[in-house]
Amino acid sequence: MSVASLTPDPGSRDPGGYSFWGGFRHAARAYPTLLRVGLSEVVAYRAEFIVWILTTNMPFVMLAIWHAVAAEGTVGRFGRADFVAYYLGGWAIRLVTSTWLVWELSMEIRGGTLSTRLLRPLHPLFTLAAQHMAALPMRALVVTPVVAAMFVLAGDKLAVRDPRILAVFLLSLVGAWFLIFFTMVFLGSMAFFVESAIGIFELWLGLHAILSGYLVPLELLPRWVARIARLSPFDSMLAFPLETLTGKRDLGAALASLGVQWLYVAVMAVAGLTVWRRGVRRYVAFGG
Amino acid sequence: MSYPSDVVEVSELCKTYRVHRRPPGVWAALRSVMVRKTEAVQAVAGLSFHIAAGERVGFLGPNGAGKTTTLKVLSGLLHPTSGRVSVGGFVPFQRAPGFLKQITLVMGQKQQLLWDLPPAETYAMNRAIYEVPRAQADETIRELTALLDVGDLIQKPTRQLSLGERMKCELIAALLHRPRVLFLDEPTIGLDVSMQAKMREFIRAYNERYGAAVILTSHYMDDVTALCPRVIVIDHGKLIYDGDLKALVRRVRPDKRLTLRLSAPVERAVLEKLGTVVTHDQGHTVLSVAPALLNATVQGALSTLPVADLSVEDPPLEEVMRELFQGSAVGAANTAGRPAAGDAA
């Protein structure tokens, strides 16, 4: 008998299953509790959390370098205050939009602990998303003093006093979070197929550092590299929100980038879910 | 053949894994980058059985027999290679929420409790995920904590609990949604004897209270003897017995165990006249006796020996299993308690 014959009779087909929106409604009902429990977990892991934040220090190193360089005069459109706004803003955006789901997924798939999530009647990606969203209040708390410093030191370089730019900026943060989340789902789900999903992630991390503007503002990169970066999804992950915040993209350009960003969110959601779905079929639930 | 009361139906189930093989060494590692050799390993090979609502079934077999793989297929974690599987009317691998709300899989070595938070937080999370009404969840937690004698432990961080305490709290998390089908894979592993007994009592009480089907694998035969009137035995992924546990014991090891406590020393040669001496130590003697000779042997022992106490039992299940898996009794035991299982055997 083939696998195809495992499909139930039409009369009994998936009587306890959810429609696409049914799954979202279920998640919406569960989310208040999931977020509350998730926040409790973050608080319990606060020491680990602080250590992780301290390791995200590259923007401060880059700020020190560029600040010194800019003492001689502006670099392109960047003066010293521009660099302050750029790197402090970049650090804050990175902190609130990044998720390191790939580590978790890779470990759970290889170790077999993903089984616990798969056995629960809510899609594992909903519970994983809730877990990471729950960390946002704590991250916001850590980011607040740096954001305050940014306003004090380089407030005049920030474009978000315009409510329209502010609205686009806030939407771009949401878009960046989802884009990074689905990218992590995509990369993490590679662990269903290859043993070195983390290796692929590290390759991605290197590209991200350059092409997202994390290390160097895109407009200071060689023109051809900057062109590739602006076409890539990496731009939507950091450079777009950051340049919108610091006034380097005007409203028209920011709106166009917002459209591109959400297109990338949709593409990565489809890609991530496709790899996930195919991967789950191959899952061997080792370790039990 | 299936029955209306069946909650688990398995027909001709096969599961094959593709396993990467390479010899040790740097050269082999480099070669495996270019040429990756895999081979198919058949974990389950044409297994068929049915389990009715409320039944408690022991799922037995040596290591690597395919027990855990079968449980993972039944709980929807693994996609079968071929065959037909239905649990509570659902196809498990589709993992419909309605299906997942009816089952639970407890693996002794795995845990779902959040490590740094009290178990109560995991229960709150499960209540939300399984959409259990708050009043029902509270009542279930009250009931299960009382049955397991857990008390305030559910308010202590999981990492501060002992293994036994954690296992009890795990069980509550696994049963909070009142599943109709329990897949228990080594649920008492690593627990001390009294804790094992407590767990067994609890599983039986849950089964009786909610009429849930229980499918249990365990290397502790006491678990199986105490809980499961029916056993399914598999080896190399194939069914070799499905039926009454006592009948299996009778078929594989028909002899009885006559245990004697003697008030004075007796020569071994004297005891050997009554039956095969299994153990003889400090006034405690166990004899193996053919069923037909049991009455005469008991009478003989009582009339000729200084017997302080006497009991008659079946041979321990461990011995039965050992003999069964050695193959000597497979032919004799190759019979089924139910027709569908017999077909597969």
Amount of beta strand of chain B: 25-35%
Alpha-carbon distance between the two ends of chain B: 14 Å
Cα shape of chain A:
globular
Write down the CATH topology of the largest domain in chain B: Rossmann fold
Computed over alpha carbons, the radius of gyration of chain B is 24 Å
* Radius of gyration of chain A, CA atoms, in whole angstroms: 21 Å
Short description:
Chain A is 72% helix and 0% strand. Chain A is built from 13 helices and no strands. Chain B is globular and about 70 Å long.
Structure report:
- The complex is a heterodimer of chains A (288) and B (345).
- Chain A is mostly helical and 288 residues long.
- Chain A has one domain.
- Chain A has 13 helices and no strands.
- The two termini of chain A are 27 Å apart.
- Mean pLDDT of chain A is 89; it is low at 1-16.
- By secondary structure, chain B is of the alpha/beta class.
- In chain B, 37% of the residues lie in helices and 28% in strands.
- Chain B contains 14 helices and 13 strands.
- Chain B has helices spanning 26-34, 67-74, 97-100, 119-129, 134-148, 163-175, 193-210, 221-227, 245-252, 268-272, 294-304, 317-325, 330-333, 339-344, and strands spanning 6-20, 38-52, 56-60, 82-87, 103-107, 181-185, 213-217, 230-235, 238-244, 256-262, 276-281, 284-289, 307-313.
- In chain B, strands 5-6-7-3-8-9 form a six-stranded mixed sheet, sandwiched between helices. Chain B has a four-stranded antiparallel sheet with strand order 11-12-10-13. In chain B, strands 2-1-4 form a three-stranded antiparallel sheet.
- The longest helix of chain B has 18 residues, at 193-210.
- The two termini of chain B are 14 Å apart.
- Mean pLDDT of chain B is 86; it is low at 328-345.
- Classes of the chains: A mainly alpha (288), B alpha/beta (345).
- Chains A and B meet through helix 1 and helix 6 of A and strand 1, strand 4, helix 3, strand 5 and helix 4 of B.
